[in-house]
Amino acid sequence: MNNSSKNFSENEYIDSVFSKKIYLIILLFTTLWVLLIFLAPFLMATGETGEKISSVIYLFFSKVCHQDDGRSFHMFGHILGVCSRCVWIYSGFFTGILSYPLIKKINNVKLPSVWFLIIPVVILGADVFADITGILKNTFFSRSVTGFIIGFTLVFFLYPGFLKFFYEVNLFLKNKLST
Fold first, then answer.
1. Which of 53, 57, 83, 130 is most buried (CB neighbours < 10 A)?
2. What are the tens digits of pLDDT across the range 1-45?
3. What is the overall mean pLDDT for the chain?
4. How far apart are CA 54 and CA 48, in angstroms?
5. Exposure of 158 by Cβ count < 10 A (0-12 exposed, 13-18 middle, 19+ buried)?
6. Are 130 and 138 in contact (CB under 8 A)?
7. How high is the pLDDT of residue 5?
């Protein structure tokens, strides 16, 4: 079997030093992402230079969120970088990535049961469906709770996937450079 195409069994672990590096990169990226969400309204309120920087942040987040004023939290008289559900998706992801080492080993590539993803998706979908059909208007609370649950849950599926991906890329590059 070729080193660059190592297959992972359900119980395999990746090198812990490599895993720590990937974990810290993802933690740093997630921290910056969440900070930018809260930095946007702060900078908008500071004046001319801050408004220009803030406009770039809002533009950046407009690609991943509708930023509807009526569905967004406000700080300093301005909406956050993303809507209320997205704030909690990203906050849930941030909380999940922070707590990941307390729940699982950071070098474990085993995924949880898909039901741990399906159930939160169904709950979020029900909240959206009930709102769209007019059965039950969703609220800041329902959007926040469903967003947080999805964000927190996604960590346990995405982090092992990122870890496997970057490990495979690392092995591939090492093999290419050594030949």
1. 83
2. 344 445 555 557 888 899 999 999 999 999 999 999 999 999 999
3. 92
4. 10
5. middle
6. yes
7. 47
* pLDDT for position 137: 93
CA distance 28 to 129: 34
**Degrees to nearest 5, angle at CA 117 with 114 and 119:** 105
Name the phi and psi angles at 41, rounded to 5. Answer: -70, -30
DSSP 111: P
CB 24 within 8 A of CB 106: no
H-helix segments, the chain: 16-46, 48-62, 84-103, 115-133, 140-178
SS3 74: strand
- Give the torsion sign (CA, 151, 153, 157, 159): positive
User: Do the beta carbons of residue 88 and residue 144 sit within 8 Å?
Assistant: yes
